[in-house]
Design goal:
Blueprint: H1 20-23, H2 32-39, H3 43-76, H4 80-83, H5 88-115, H6 118-136, H7 142-156, H8 159-168, H9 173-201, H10 212-234, H11 247-258, H12 271-278, H13 281-309, H14 315-321, H15 323-343, H16 347-366, H17 370-398, H18 402-423, H19 436-468
Protein backbone atom coordinates (compact mmCIF):
# COMPACT_ATOMS: atom_id res chain seq x y z
CA UNK A 1 0.00 0.00 0.00
CA UNK A 2 1.29 3.42 -0.93
CA UNK A 3 1.40 5.44 2.23
CA UNK A 4 4.74 7.12 1.76
CA UNK A 5 5.09 10.81 2.44
CA UNK A 6 7.68 13.03 0.89
CA UNK A 7 9.86 12.54 3.96
CA UNK A 8 10.50 9.01 2.73
CA UNK A 9 12.62 10.31 -0.12
CA UNK A 10 16.39 10.05 0.16
CA UNK A 11 16.54 13.43 1.86
CA UNK A 12 14.41 16.17 3.32
CA UNK A 13 12.81 17.97 0.34
CA UNK A 14 14.08 21.43 -0.53
CA UNK A 15 10.48 22.42 -1.29
CA UNK A 16 9.90 23.02 2.40
CA UNK A 17 12.89 25.28 2.59
CA UNK A 18 14.74 22.81 4.79
CA UNK A 19 18.41 22.48 4.06
CA UNK A 20 19.75 18.93 3.96
CA UNK A 21 22.83 20.33 5.60
CA UNK A 22 20.76 21.42 8.60
CA UNK A 23 18.98 18.26 9.63
CA UNK A 24 20.62 15.59 7.54
CA UNK A 25 18.96 12.48 6.23
CA UNK A 26 16.39 11.65 8.88
CA UNK A 27 14.73 8.30 8.29
CA UNK A 28 10.93 8.43 8.13
CA UNK A 29 10.36 5.70 10.67
CA UNK A 30 12.86 6.75 13.29
CA UNK A 31 13.93 10.35 13.26
CA UNK A 32 14.26 10.57 17.02
CA UNK A 33 18.00 10.02 17.23
CA UNK A 34 18.86 12.59 14.54
CA UNK A 35 16.80 15.36 16.08
CA UNK A 36 17.84 14.45 19.61
CA UNK A 37 21.49 14.95 18.71
CA UNK A 38 20.81 18.20 16.86
CA UNK A 39 18.58 19.97 19.41
CA UNK A 40 19.34 18.15 22.65
CA UNK A 41 15.64 17.48 23.16
CA UNK A 42 14.22 13.97 23.47
CA UNK A 43 11.59 13.89 20.76
CA UNK A 44 9.45 11.16 22.32
CA UNK A 45 9.38 13.01 25.63
CA UNK A 46 8.41 16.18 23.78
CA UNK A 47 5.54 14.38 22.05
CA UNK A 48 4.27 13.16 25.40
CA UNK A 49 4.44 16.72 26.69
CA UNK A 50 2.45 18.00 23.71
CA UNK A 51 -0.14 15.28 24.17
CA UNK A 52 -0.57 16.15 27.85
CA UNK A 53 -0.89 19.86 27.11
CA UNK A 54 -2.96 19.89 23.92
CA UNK A 55 -5.19 16.81 23.75
CA UNK A 56 -7.01 16.97 27.12
CA UNK A 57 -7.85 20.63 26.55
CA UNK A 58 -9.46 20.27 23.12
CA UNK A 59 -11.00 16.90 23.99
CA UNK A 60 -12.87 18.41 26.95
CA UNK A 61 -14.23 21.17 24.71
CA UNK A 62 -15.45 18.67 22.13
CA UNK A 63 -16.98 16.44 24.81
CA UNK A 64 -19.00 19.45 26.01
CA UNK A 65 -19.90 20.35 22.44
CA UNK A 66 -21.29 16.91 21.69
CA UNK A 67 -23.00 16.77 25.08
CA UNK A 68 -24.76 20.10 24.50
CA UNK A 69 -25.92 19.20 21.01
CA UNK A 70 -27.15 15.68 21.79
CA UNK A 71 -28.66 16.11 25.26
CA UNK A 72 -31.87 17.12 23.50
CA UNK A 73 -32.35 13.39 22.90
CA UNK A 74 -32.28 12.76 26.66
CA UNK A 75 -34.59 15.72 27.29
CA UNK A 76 -37.12 14.37 24.82
CA UNK A 77 -37.76 11.18 26.77
CA UNK A 78 -38.17 13.28 29.94
CA UNK A 79 -41.18 15.16 28.52
CA UNK A 80 -39.72 18.19 26.74
CA UNK A 81 -41.92 17.83 23.65
CA UNK A 82 -45.14 17.80 25.68
CA UNK A 83 -44.10 20.71 27.90
CA UNK A 84 -43.30 22.90 24.87
CA UNK A 85 -46.55 21.83 23.19
CA UNK A 86 -44.75 20.48 20.14
CA UNK A 87 -45.62 17.59 17.89
CA UNK A 88 -43.05 14.94 17.08
CA UNK A 89 -42.48 16.46 13.64
CA UNK A 90 -41.96 19.93 15.11
CA UNK A 91 -39.32 18.47 17.41
CA UNK A 92 -37.55 17.06 14.34
CA UNK A 93 -37.63 20.52 12.75
CA UNK A 94 -35.76 21.87 15.77
CA UNK A 95 -33.08 19.24 15.25
CA UNK A 96 -32.81 20.17 11.58
CA UNK A 97 -32.36 23.88 12.34
CA UNK A 98 -29.29 23.08 14.43
CA UNK A 99 -27.53 21.53 11.45
CA UNK A 100 -28.59 24.31 9.08
CA UNK A 101 -26.81 26.80 11.34
CA UNK A 102 -23.86 24.43 11.64
CA UNK A 103 -23.46 23.97 7.88
CA UNK A 104 -23.85 27.66 7.00
CA UNK A 105 -21.16 28.90 9.40
CA UNK A 106 -18.61 26.06 9.24
CA UNK A 107 -16.30 27.58 6.62
CA UNK A 108 -16.57 31.20 7.87
CA UNK A 109 -15.62 30.05 11.36
CA UNK A 110 -12.45 28.34 10.12
CA UNK A 111 -11.51 31.44 8.15
CA UNK A 112 -11.90 33.47 11.37
CA UNK A 113 -9.61 30.98 13.14
CA UNK A 114 -6.99 31.48 10.44
CA UNK A 115 -7.26 35.26 10.87
CA UNK A 116 -7.23 35.22 14.69
CA UNK A 117 -5.78 32.62 17.08
CA UNK A 118 -6.98 29.36 18.70
CA UNK A 119 -6.36 30.73 22.22
CA UNK A 120 -9.05 33.37 21.65
CA UNK A 121 -11.36 31.79 19.09
CA UNK A 122 -11.92 28.29 20.51
CA UNK A 123 -12.79 29.40 24.09
CA UNK A 124 -15.02 32.18 22.71
CA UNK A 125 -16.99 29.67 20.65
CA UNK A 126 -17.33 27.49 23.74
CA UNK A 127 -18.58 30.38 25.87
CA UNK A 128 -21.17 31.40 23.28
CA UNK A 129 -22.61 27.92 22.78
CA UNK A 130 -22.62 27.36 26.56
CA UNK A 131 -24.85 30.42 26.99
CA UNK A 132 -27.13 29.32 24.14
CA UNK A 133 -27.33 25.74 25.45
CA UNK A 134 -28.35 27.03 28.89
CA UNK A 135 -31.14 29.11 27.33
CA UNK A 136 -32.80 25.95 25.99
CA UNK A 137 -33.60 25.11 29.60
CA UNK A 138 -35.73 28.24 29.99
CA UNK A 139 -37.52 28.07 26.64
CA UNK A 140 -41.30 28.36 26.98
CA UNK A 141 -42.40 27.90 23.38
CA UNK A 142 -41.68 26.03 20.19
CA UNK A 143 -40.38 29.19 18.46
CA UNK A 144 -37.89 29.74 21.27
CA UNK A 145 -36.70 26.15 20.95
CA UNK A 146 -36.25 26.61 17.19
CA UNK A 147 -34.21 29.81 17.67
CA UNK A 148 -31.81 28.46 20.28
CA UNK A 149 -31.22 25.24 18.34
CA UNK A 150 -30.27 27.23 15.24
CA UNK A 151 -27.86 29.48 17.12
CA UNK A 152 -26.41 26.51 18.99
CA UNK A 153 -25.46 25.08 15.59
CA UNK A 154 -23.90 28.40 14.57
CA UNK A 155 -21.82 28.60 17.75
CA UNK A 156 -20.62 24.99 17.67
CA UNK A 157 -19.82 24.96 13.95
CA UNK A 158 -16.24 26.18 14.27
CA UNK A 159 -14.94 23.83 16.95
CA UNK A 160 -14.29 20.48 15.27
CA UNK A 161 -12.76 21.69 11.97
CA UNK A 162 -10.89 24.36 13.92
CA UNK A 163 -9.31 21.81 16.26
CA UNK A 164 -8.41 19.48 13.38
CA UNK A 165 -6.60 22.38 11.69
CA UNK A 166 -5.04 23.41 15.02
CA UNK A 167 -3.58 19.94 15.67
CA UNK A 168 -2.18 19.84 12.13
CA UNK A 169 -0.01 22.82 13.10
CA UNK A 170 1.59 20.85 15.96
CA UNK A 171 1.99 17.26 14.79
CA UNK A 172 3.65 15.54 11.85
CA UNK A 173 1.41 13.95 9.26
CA UNK A 174 1.80 10.38 10.50
CA UNK A 175 1.00 11.50 14.06
CA UNK A 176 -2.28 13.30 13.38
CA UNK A 177 -4.75 10.51 12.67
CA UNK A 178 -4.27 8.84 16.04
CA UNK A 179 -4.64 12.11 17.92
CA UNK A 180 -7.66 13.29 15.94
CA UNK A 181 -9.30 9.93 16.65
CA UNK A 182 -8.59 10.30 20.37
CA UNK A 183 -10.07 13.79 20.21
CA UNK A 184 -13.16 12.50 18.40
CA UNK A 185 -13.62 9.72 20.96
CA UNK A 186 -15.02 12.49 23.17
CA UNK A 187 -18.19 12.24 21.07
CA UNK A 188 -18.94 8.70 22.21
CA UNK A 189 -17.78 9.57 25.74
CA UNK A 190 -20.32 12.40 25.72
CA UNK A 191 -23.01 9.90 24.83
CA UNK A 192 -22.05 7.67 27.75
CA UNK A 193 -21.79 10.51 30.24
CA UNK A 194 -24.92 12.12 28.81
CA UNK A 195 -27.02 9.11 29.63
CA UNK A 196 -25.74 8.90 33.20
CA UNK A 197 -26.05 12.66 33.76
CA UNK A 198 -29.55 12.78 32.29
CA UNK A 199 -30.66 9.91 34.53
CA UNK A 200 -29.35 11.71 37.61
CA UNK A 201 -30.47 15.23 36.69
CA UNK A 202 -33.96 14.02 35.76
CA UNK A 203 -34.49 13.31 39.45
CA UNK A 204 -34.51 17.11 39.96
CA UNK A 205 -37.94 17.19 38.34
CA UNK A 206 -39.97 19.88 40.12
CA UNK A 207 -37.00 21.67 41.72
CA UNK A 208 -37.56 25.42 41.34
CA UNK A 209 -40.75 24.66 39.46
CA UNK A 210 -38.75 23.31 36.51
CA UNK A 211 -39.12 19.95 34.84
CA UNK A 212 -36.20 17.53 34.95
CA UNK A 213 -35.50 18.03 31.23
CA UNK A 214 -34.95 21.76 31.80
CA UNK A 215 -32.31 21.08 34.43
CA UNK A 216 -30.45 18.85 31.93
CA UNK A 217 -29.90 21.87 29.67
CA UNK A 218 -29.31 24.37 32.47
CA UNK A 219 -26.71 22.40 34.43
CA UNK A 220 -24.84 21.04 31.42
CA UNK A 221 -24.86 24.49 29.79
CA UNK A 222 -23.51 26.12 32.96
CA UNK A 223 -20.75 23.52 33.08
CA UNK A 224 -19.75 24.54 29.54
CA UNK A 225 -19.69 28.23 30.50
CA UNK A 226 -17.44 27.54 33.50
CA UNK A 227 -15.02 25.44 31.43
CA UNK A 228 -14.96 28.03 28.62
CA UNK A 229 -13.75 30.80 30.93
CA UNK A 230 -10.83 28.66 32.06
CA UNK A 231 -10.14 27.60 28.46
CA UNK A 232 -8.71 31.05 27.75
CA UNK A 233 -5.86 30.00 30.05
CA UNK A 234 -5.34 26.34 29.09
CA UNK A 235 -5.69 26.53 25.28
CA UNK A 236 -2.27 27.21 23.74
CA UNK A 237 -1.58 29.08 20.54
CA UNK A 238 0.73 27.74 17.83
CA UNK A 239 4.28 26.46 18.55
CA UNK A 240 6.00 29.74 17.69
CA UNK A 241 4.34 31.55 20.61
CA UNK A 242 3.31 28.78 23.03
CA UNK A 243 4.58 29.72 26.49
CA UNK A 244 4.87 26.16 27.83
CA UNK A 245 7.72 25.37 25.40
CA UNK A 246 11.41 26.06 25.90
CA UNK A 247 13.42 27.52 23.04
CA UNK A 248 15.01 24.13 22.34
CA UNK A 249 11.61 22.42 22.32
CA UNK A 250 10.27 25.07 19.97
CA UNK A 251 13.23 24.53 17.66
CA UNK A 252 12.66 20.77 17.71
CA UNK A 253 9.00 21.17 16.76
CA UNK A 254 10.00 23.57 14.01
CA UNK A 255 12.54 21.17 12.52
CA UNK A 256 10.34 18.08 12.69
CA UNK A 257 7.38 19.89 11.10
CA UNK A 258 9.52 21.58 8.46
CA UNK A 259 10.80 18.18 7.32
CA UNK A 260 7.32 16.70 7.16
CA UNK A 261 4.56 19.25 6.55
CA UNK A 262 3.72 22.85 5.72
CA UNK A 263 3.00 23.86 9.33
CA UNK A 264 6.10 26.05 9.68
CA UNK A 265 5.56 28.00 6.47
CA UNK A 266 4.49 31.60 6.88
CA UNK A 267 1.49 31.34 4.59
CA UNK A 268 -0.66 34.44 4.24
CA UNK A 269 -4.41 34.01 3.81
CA UNK A 270 -5.59 34.33 0.20
CA UNK A 271 -8.93 33.58 -1.41
CA UNK A 272 -7.03 31.76 -4.18
CA UNK A 273 -6.04 29.08 -1.67
CA UNK A 274 -9.67 28.78 -0.54
CA UNK A 275 -10.63 28.30 -4.19
CA UNK A 276 -8.05 25.52 -4.52
CA UNK A 277 -9.89 23.46 -1.93
CA UNK A 278 -13.21 23.85 -3.74
CA UNK A 279 -11.57 22.88 -7.04
CA UNK A 280 -9.92 19.69 -5.78
CA UNK A 281 -12.03 16.54 -6.46
CA UNK A 282 -10.25 14.69 -3.65
CA UNK A 283 -11.54 17.23 -1.11
CA UNK A 284 -15.07 16.54 -2.33
CA UNK A 285 -14.47 12.81 -1.86
CA UNK A 286 -13.27 13.37 1.72
CA UNK A 287 -16.43 15.42 2.24
CA UNK A 288 -18.65 12.68 0.82
CA UNK A 289 -16.85 10.22 3.08
CA UNK A 290 -18.11 12.15 6.10
CA UNK A 291 -21.49 12.92 4.51
CA UNK A 292 -22.19 9.20 4.30
CA UNK A 293 -21.22 8.81 7.97
CA UNK A 294 -22.91 11.88 9.43
CA UNK A 295 -26.45 10.58 8.90
CA UNK A 296 -25.93 7.37 10.90
CA UNK A 297 -23.70 9.22 13.39
CA UNK A 298 -26.20 11.90 14.30
CA UNK A 299 -29.36 9.84 13.99
CA UNK A 300 -27.86 7.44 16.50
CA UNK A 301 -26.73 10.16 18.91
CA UNK A 302 -29.99 12.13 18.64
CA UNK A 303 -32.44 9.24 18.71
CA UNK A 304 -30.75 6.44 20.67
CA UNK A 305 -32.73 7.10 23.91
CA UNK A 306 -35.96 7.13 21.90
CA UNK A 307 -35.01 3.98 19.99
CA UNK A 308 -34.28 2.15 23.24
CA UNK A 309 -37.38 3.46 25.00
CA UNK A 310 -39.55 2.28 22.09
CA UNK A 311 -38.20 -1.23 22.64
CA UNK A 312 -40.31 -1.30 25.80
CA UNK A 313 -38.09 0.29 28.46
CA UNK A 314 -38.96 3.16 30.81
CA UNK A 315 -37.44 6.63 30.33
CA UNK A 316 -35.00 6.09 33.21
CA UNK A 317 -33.98 2.67 31.89
CA UNK A 318 -33.50 4.09 28.41
CA UNK A 319 -31.16 6.81 29.74
CA UNK A 320 -28.94 4.23 31.43
CA UNK A 321 -29.08 1.76 28.53
CA UNK A 322 -27.51 4.35 26.24
CA UNK A 323 -24.25 4.00 28.18
CA UNK A 324 -23.04 0.54 27.01
CA UNK A 325 -23.22 1.26 23.24
CA UNK A 326 -21.23 4.46 23.70
CA UNK A 327 -18.74 2.81 26.05
CA UNK A 328 -18.04 0.06 23.51
CA UNK A 329 -17.75 2.70 20.77
CA UNK A 330 -15.20 4.68 22.78
CA UNK A 331 -12.98 1.66 23.37
CA UNK A 332 -13.15 0.55 19.74
CA UNK A 333 -12.44 4.07 18.48
CA UNK A 334 -9.16 4.10 20.41
CA UNK A 335 -8.24 0.56 19.30
CA UNK A 336 -8.88 1.38 15.64
CA UNK A 337 -6.93 4.64 15.96
CA UNK A 338 -3.88 2.78 17.30
CA UNK A 339 -4.13 -0.04 14.72
CA UNK A 340 -4.66 2.37 11.82
CA UNK A 341 -1.62 4.38 12.84
CA UNK A 342 0.58 1.32 13.35
CA UNK A 343 -0.39 -0.32 10.06
CA UNK A 344 -0.60 2.95 8.09
CA UNK A 345 -4.04 1.99 6.81
CA UNK A 346 -6.99 4.38 6.53
CA UNK A 347 -9.55 3.19 3.98
CA UNK A 348 -9.41 -0.46 5.04
CA UNK A 349 -10.34 0.39 8.63
CA UNK A 350 -13.10 2.78 7.57
CA UNK A 351 -14.72 0.16 5.35
CA UNK A 352 -14.37 -2.56 8.00
CA UNK A 353 -15.98 -0.55 10.80
CA UNK A 354 -18.70 0.79 8.50
CA UNK A 355 -19.50 -2.82 7.67
CA UNK A 356 -19.78 -3.59 11.39
CA UNK A 357 -22.23 -0.72 11.80
CA UNK A 358 -24.21 -1.97 8.79
CA UNK A 359 -24.59 -5.36 10.48
CA UNK A 360 -26.02 -3.54 13.51
CA UNK A 361 -28.67 -1.85 11.39
CA UNK A 362 -29.53 -5.10 9.64
CA UNK A 363 -30.23 -6.55 13.09
CA UNK A 364 -32.34 -3.52 14.02
CA UNK A 365 -34.36 -3.86 10.84
CA UNK A 366 -34.91 -7.60 11.12
CA UNK A 367 -35.04 -8.44 14.84
CA UNK A 368 -38.33 -8.48 16.76
CA UNK A 369 -37.00 -9.23 20.24
CA UNK A 370 -35.98 -6.17 22.31
CA UNK A 371 -32.76 -7.79 23.54
CA UNK A 372 -31.59 -8.61 20.03
CA UNK A 373 -32.51 -5.14 18.77
CA UNK A 374 -30.56 -3.58 21.63
CA UNK A 375 -27.52 -5.63 20.58
CA UNK A 376 -27.95 -4.06 17.15
CA UNK A 377 -27.57 -0.58 18.67
CA UNK A 378 -24.30 -1.66 20.31
CA UNK A 379 -22.89 -2.91 16.99
CA UNK A 380 -24.10 0.22 15.19
CA UNK A 381 -22.34 2.51 17.67
CA UNK A 382 -19.22 0.30 17.72
CA UNK A 383 -18.88 0.71 13.95
CA UNK A 384 -20.02 4.30 13.42
CA UNK A 385 -17.70 6.12 15.82
CA UNK A 386 -14.34 4.50 14.83
CA UNK A 387 -15.18 4.87 11.14
CA UNK A 388 -16.10 8.54 11.53
CA UNK A 389 -12.91 9.26 13.47
CA UNK A 390 -10.68 7.97 10.68
CA UNK A 391 -12.78 9.66 7.96
CA UNK A 392 -12.44 13.02 9.68
CA UNK A 393 -8.65 12.75 9.98
CA UNK A 394 -8.09 12.07 6.27
CA UNK A 395 -7.96 15.66 4.93
CA UNK A 396 -5.83 16.76 7.89
CA UNK A 397 -3.25 14.20 6.72
CA UNK A 398 -3.62 14.55 2.96
CA UNK A 399 -4.32 18.22 2.19
CA UNK A 400 -1.26 20.47 2.07
CA UNK A 401 -1.34 24.25 2.13
CA UNK A 402 -2.53 25.79 5.40
CA UNK A 403 -5.48 27.77 4.04
CA UNK A 404 -6.47 24.98 1.68
CA UNK A 405 -6.38 22.47 4.54
CA UNK A 406 -8.40 24.72 6.86
CA UNK A 407 -10.97 25.17 4.08
CA UNK A 408 -10.98 21.45 3.27
CA UNK A 409 -11.59 20.56 6.92
CA UNK A 410 -14.52 22.97 7.07
CA UNK A 411 -15.88 21.76 3.72
CA UNK A 412 -15.80 18.19 4.93
CA UNK A 413 -17.84 19.02 8.02
CA UNK A 414 -20.27 21.32 6.18
CA UNK A 415 -21.01 18.93 3.32
CA UNK A 416 -20.94 16.02 5.73
CA UNK A 417 -23.52 17.55 8.01
CA UNK A 418 -26.00 17.87 5.16
CA UNK A 419 -26.48 14.16 5.80
CA UNK A 420 -27.37 15.03 9.39
CA UNK A 421 -29.93 17.57 8.14
CA UNK A 422 -31.70 14.76 6.30
CA UNK A 423 -31.26 12.36 9.19
CA UNK A 424 -33.09 14.61 11.65
CA UNK A 425 -36.32 14.08 9.70
CA UNK A 426 -36.20 10.28 9.53
CA UNK A 427 -37.11 9.05 13.02
CA UNK A 428 -40.73 10.14 13.31
CA UNK A 429 -42.70 9.27 16.41
CA UNK A 430 -45.23 7.29 14.36
CA UNK A 431 -42.47 4.98 13.01
CA UNK A 432 -41.58 3.31 16.33
CA UNK A 433 -40.63 0.84 17.58
CA UNK A 434 -39.02 -0.55 14.41
CA UNK A 435 -38.17 2.76 12.69
CA UNK A 436 -37.82 1.13 9.27
CA UNK A 437 -37.31 4.44 7.44
CA UNK A 438 -34.58 5.75 9.74
CA UNK A 439 -32.73 2.46 10.09
CA UNK A 440 -33.07 1.84 6.35
CA UNK A 441 -31.55 5.20 5.45
CA UNK A 442 -28.70 4.67 7.93
CA UNK A 443 -27.94 1.27 6.40
CA UNK A 444 -28.02 2.72 2.87
CA UNK A 445 -25.67 5.53 3.85
CA UNK A 446 -23.21 3.08 5.39
CA UNK A 447 -23.15 1.06 2.17
CA UNK A 448 -22.58 4.32 0.26
CA UNK A 449 -19.72 5.14 2.63
CA UNK A 450 -17.99 1.87 1.81
CA UNK A 451 -18.29 2.68 -1.91
CA UNK A 452 -17.05 6.29 -1.54
CA UNK A 453 -14.10 5.30 0.64
CA UNK A 454 -13.17 2.46 -1.70
CA UNK A 455 -13.23 4.90 -4.63
CA UNK A 456 -11.06 7.41 -2.74
CA UNK A 457 -8.63 4.64 -1.83
CA UNK A 458 -8.29 3.64 -5.50
CA UNK A 459 -7.76 7.24 -6.68
CA UNK A 460 -5.12 8.03 -4.04
CA UNK A 461 -3.18 4.83 -4.70
CA UNK A 462 -3.26 5.50 -8.43
CA UNK A 463 -2.02 9.08 -7.94
CA UNK A 464 0.81 7.93 -5.66
CA UNK A 465 1.96 5.41 -8.26
CA UNK A 466 1.89 8.10 -10.96
CA UNK A 467 4.12 10.29 -8.83
CA UNK A 468 6.44 7.37 -8.09
CA UNK A 469 6.89 6.94 -11.84
CA UNK A 470 7.70 10.66 -12.25
CA UNK A 471 4.57 11.41 -14.29
CA UNK A 472 3.87 14.59 -12.30
CA UNK A 473 7.43 15.95 -12.22
CA UNK A 474 6.58 18.46 -14.95
CA UNK A 475 4.75 20.53 -12.35
CA UNK A 476 8.13 21.59 -10.94
CA UNK A 477 9.20 23.18 -14.24
CA UNK A 478 9.89 26.86 -13.76
CA UNK A 479 9.78 26.69 -9.96
CA UNK A 480 12.60 27.46 -7.57
CA UNK A 481 14.06 24.78 -5.35
CA UNK A 482 12.37 26.23 -2.28
CA UNK A 483 8.92 26.56 -3.82
CA UNK A 484 6.27 24.19 -2.48
CA UNK A 485 3.15 23.34 -4.50
CA UNK A 486 1.12 21.91 -1.64
CA UNK A 487 -0.43 18.50 -2.19
CA UNK A 488 -0.07 19.07 -5.95
CA UNK A 489 3.69 18.87 -5.53
CA UNK A 490 4.98 15.63 -7.14
CA UNK A 491 7.04 14.91 -3.98
CA UNK A 492 3.88 14.66 -1.87
CA UNK A 493 2.42 11.20 -1.19
CA UNK A 494 -1.14 10.67 -0.04
CA UNK A 495 -1.97 8.47 2.93
CA UNK A 496 -4.39 5.74 1.90
Amino acid sequence: MATATYEEKDSVPPALGQSEKTVGHLPASDSDSGLDEFTGVNEKALLRKLDRKLLPAVTVLYLLSFLDRSNVANARVEGMVNDLHMTGNEYLTGLTLYFIGYVLFEIPCNIVLKLTSPKIWLPTLTLVWGVVATLIGVCSSMSGFFAVRFFLGVAESGLFPGVVYYLSMWYRREERQYRISLFFSAASLAGAFGGILAWGIAHMNGVGGYGGWRWIFILEGLLTIIVSTSAYYFIANYPATAKFLSDDERATIHFRLKANSDATRNEAFTWANVKQAFGDPKVWLYSLGFHTMSLPLYTLSLFLPTIIKELGFTAAQAQLLTVPPYAVATVLTVIVAVASEKLKLRAAFIMSTSSLAAIGYIILLSAKKPGVSYAGTVLAAAGIYPSTAVVLSWPANNVSGQTKRATANAMQISIGNLGAVLGTQLYRSTDGPRFFVGHGFALGYLVANIIVVGTTWFILKKENKSRDRGERDGRLAGTSGDEWLGDEDPRWRFQT
